Amino acid sequence: MPNVVVIGAQWGDEGKGKFVDLLTLRADVVVRFQGGNNAGHTLVVGGQKTVLHLIPAGILHPGKSCVIGNGVVVDPEVFVEEIDALKQRGFLKDEGQLVLSLDAHVIMPWHKAIDVAREQRAGAGKIGTTGRGIGPTYEDKVARRGIRVRDLLDEARLARKVKDRLASANEELSRLGAQVALDEAAIVKSHAALGRRLATYARDASLWLHRAIQQGRSVLFEGAQGTLLDVDHGTYPFVTSSNTVAGNAVVGSGVGPTAIDRVIGITKAYSTRVGSGPYPSELLDATGEKLRQLGGEFGATTGRPRRTGWVDALALRYAARVNGLDGLALMKLDVLTGFEQLQIAVAYELDGKRVDEMPSDLEDLERAKPIYEALPGWTEDLKGARRWSDLPVNAQRYVERVAELVGVKVIAVSVGPDRDETIVLENPFDA
């Protein structure tokens, strides 16, 4: 069975959770390989809504194994809360279903306090983080002063590491004007207790995955955020603090690159973005507000209204290139029902010239004006569509045109929030 990576091909919030949930029916193992609880995957199964922030969406399927890899930064309080909530609803009956990498870095109280204080201090120049400590945790990881899951399991080691880091953290908070002073003893006590809860799931995830693949188990690697938020390949500095592209699936989970067989990108039938940064096809008018309301475009984690716009073929072509996409899943096509005319950004105008590829320079991208191609809309309700032939002709033409402009085939189309409201044209797990 092949191993498949699913990543966001826009600015995140593309509907990866739903598609991962669907593909999990064919996978044996689901792996989260980067990001933290700044991501929220919303799933609707049987009309019941579930929002997961850390644990992979596959946890809703009995018998499936879920792994949180070394590339993820883990807020232990959120992790424990998710476990308790899942168990209350009858999930995670088997503790062995969930594996947490011993090498995943831990979001500590100072990371969250510093994150919030920096954003408040930055004012109009803020990045637009969720304030959950993701960036400062990755900073400590790179600076080689981070605290990992394995450290929470040894209280004496944890106490040493907290003591080594907390003084400088409190100094930074004071410089930022934050009215907070973190208590060393309280942090050690609370996080040692959290460590005892995490110990049930903590493993050498790299070795665990290696053995699973050797046994012929199929693995689904689940990305968080989206390509254009990648710290190297996104709209820097308006990005997240990790690599969101497909290549990081192996780094963030501890398997080799030859373990990956296929890469699938997820895109909405329109586009959205959260936070600051350039967004050429953004709609700041009634049409943009209509997309927001019809699509329920409010953050699953923060509740913040998302910026909305038409789909951007240049951005998707860029995502196809840096991820090596084998296929696209087009989500929320049903949201476009009722629009008389639809637009696709097929090029940009930059300083009076036509540009056919996404500029790599942020300032160029900020000046870029979209050049649109118009397509006719449709009025038919798509909710009952389960086959390609069930879609109105204009909906089919829209999907086909997106695939043509991006140069990647569309393998699935979502026509509603529920798991079964999906037209699967090709399953990437088919050998």
Automatic annotation (TrEMBL):
Its EC number is 6.3.4.4. It is found in: Cytoplasm. PROSITE patterns: ADENYLOSUCCIN_SYN_1, ADENYLOSUCCIN_SYN_2. Its cofactor is Mg(2+). GTP binds at residues 12-18, 40-42, 306, 332-334, 414-416. It catalyses: IMP + L-aspartate + GTP = N(6)-(1,2-dicarboxyethyl)-AMP + GDP + phosphate + 2 H(+). Keywords: Cytoplasm, GTP-binding, Ligase, Magnesium, Metal-binding, Nucleotide-binding, Purine biosynthesis. Pathway: Purine metabolism; AMP biosynthesis via de novo pathway; AMP from IMP: step 1/2. The active site is at D13 (proton acceptor), H41 (proton donor), K141. Mg(2+) binds at D13, G40. IMP binds at D13, E14, G15, K16, N38, A39, G40, H41, T130, R144, Q225, T240, R304. Binds 1 Mg(2+) ion per subunit. Gene3D superfamilies: Adenylosuccinate Synthetase, subunit A, domain 1, Adenylosuccinate Synthetase, subunit A, domain 2, Adenylosuccinate Synthetase, subunit A, domain 3. Its main location: cytoplasm. CDD domains: AdSS. Substrate binds at A300, T301, T302, G303, R304, P305, R306. Belongs to the adenylosuccinate synthetase family. Homodimer. HAMAP family: Adenylosucc_synth. Plays an important role in the de novo pathway of purine nucleotide biosynthesis. Catalyzes the first committed step in the biosynthesis of AMP from IMP. This is Adenylosuccinate synthetase. It comes from Anaeromyxobacter paludicola.
